[in-house]
Amino acid sequence: MSVRIGVEATGGEAAGPAPPSLLRRLTARPELGPFLLLVAELAVFGAINPQFLSPQNIGNVLTFTVELGLIALPMTLLMTSGEFDLSVGSVFGFSAVLMWTLFNTEVLSLPAAFLVALLVAAAIGLANGLFVTKLKIPSFLVTLGMLLVVRGTALFITDGFPQRTWKSSGEWIATVLVGDFYIGPLRVYMSLFWFVLAALLLGYVLTQTKAGNWIQASGGNPAAARARGVDVERTKIALFMLTSVMAALAGIISSIRTSAANPNSGMGYELEVIAMVVIGGTALMGGRGTIIGTVLGVFILRTMRNGIVLIGVPGLAYNIFIGAIILGMMSLHSWLDRRHQAGG
Amino acid sequence: MAEPLVRMERISKSYGSVQALKDVTFTVAEREIVGLLGDNGAGKSTLIKILSGAVPASSGEIWFRGRKLEIRGTQDAIAAGIETIYQDSALVPQLSIARNLFLGREPLTGPAFLNRMDKATMNRVAGELLARVGITKRIPPTTPISSLSGGERQSVAIARAMYFDSDLIILDEPTNNLGVAETQGVLRFVRNARDSGHSCIFIAHNIHHVFQVVDRIVVLRRGEVVADAIDPKRTSIEEVERVITGLDEEAAA
């Protein structure tokens, strides 16, 4: 490739504006607002109840947070591509039920049942993707339908009863997925390691790779992306599959840790996960996404849930705070967007 | 007569019961700038979309450098050396200038499995190209497209066609919404493109812009070619306008 055509400058403005200052670049980042909010939460809750920052409480918060985080990370990529998935909560519940049913009925070993559960989740994601891209049905409707199908299947095959999971002890796969160890007084599960790994990997994909460029283009202007030869449909299908598989992984990890595979578990997680992603600064309509923002969003919501209980606010009031955070953060992101586009 | 660079032969296109193109034959020679004119709904955009792979023709053949070309999608057209600059620039507003420039053909660095974009090269080339297409204002190549003016966006689209060195560059309304200096930049680009061996199809509502750069004018009316060898040096703008609107036929009748 070479530049062959020479074109002279047309004589526009000779001197341009100075490069933006550090402060200005910082305020243009969508992650700044969520970061400050998380710091504020930690400061306020820590000041009111010192137990909040105890190793035991931090360990507790981390344990469940990373399980939801494992779904929020691929959801960030999916939403950046202009789609979202409401079926993740039901896949979370269904996959664990499927794996334990296959294992308990002695049809398969635990590692084989684990693999089958992930493959079925991938097939669910593939179905979501095909409905959205080939039949041009909005992802809201497709994944809402899939949510009901998957949840219904989980309830049907279990008669609504939880599956036994106590036989997992001693299985190497259970140790790899969710084995625990201590760092000083802090009890940490292996799921934290998987979450960090997934965040690093997907952050790299979104910001550094050609695939990341295609994901952002698919959400930002699909027609333009197609005109440049980007396979928008395949990109979206791959992301639906990834999201579903990660939701299954999170559900399986959770079932092993809690020793329960309940067909109803994961109910409502889809909205909490989407809230985590948008709070972090990813655009609901696609084109812009941030993994760092999502990690912050995940911690903002889970810290809030934990913190308000520790400072004595009734747990039932949790949704009021979450709703307020979503509205506040959305206003901030929208204001930053307009300011940025106006060049201000 | 020498083989034309591109020859679209007996192209027809129907959208349901609406016939957008009827047996259109259209050629562009090597190093030729063809102005494609016609009123709204004349079929210009449909013809261009077929050539750029955005929509398939209902019937007809496309020959490129004497070889029959099967265009099943935009990727086929791009691979053959046909670059289209659309009216709306076809850019992704959230992506940076450099990322837009290389979208679909991102250079990679490091081992292939890492799929890692060569951002240093992308930013360096984007910076150089921006200066060449006339954006002399200091705009970093990492700036998102959404922060640019209409003219600057068009310049980015042009920079893309320049860099990938396409044989045929289709400019669909490239001077729309542009200021005087930016329009002159586009016209200069088209002339330079021809001088360095490229061919162009130039579509514009402003006939004055077309007259400034093209070698030949083709006029479409209601999906058919009504004139395909108008020499802008020997024809007045008013005469071309009469062909576009059909007043010439009414006068002859």
Task: Please tell me about this protein's structure.
The complex is a heterodimer of chains A (344) and B (253). By secondary structure, chain A is an all-alpha fold. Chain A has one domain (55-328): ABC transporter involved in vitamin B12 uptake, BtuC. Chain A has helices spanning 22-28, 32-48, 55-80, 88-104, 110-134, 139-158, 172-178, 190-208, 210-220, 222-227, 232-258, 269-279, 291-310, 318-341, and strands at residues 180-183, 186-189. Chain A has a two-stranded antiparallel ribbon. In chain A, a hairpin with a 2-residue loop joins β1 (180-183) and β2 (186-189). Chain B has a domain at 6-92 and 166-252: Rossmann fold, CATH 3.40.50.300. Chain B has 9 helices and 12 strands. Chain B has helices spanning 44-52, 74-80, 97-101, 119-132, 150-163, 180-195, 207-213, 237-245, 247-252; strands at residues 6-15, 18-28, 33-37, 59-64, 67-68, 82-85, 108-109, 116-117, 168-172, 199-203, 216-221, 224-230. In chain B, the strands form 3 sheets. A 6-stranded mixed sheet of chain B has the order 6-9-10-3-11-12, sandwiched between helices. A 4-stranded antiparallel sheet of chain B has the order 2-1-4-5, with helices on one face. Chains A and B meet through α9 and α10 of A and α2, β8, α4 and α6 of B.
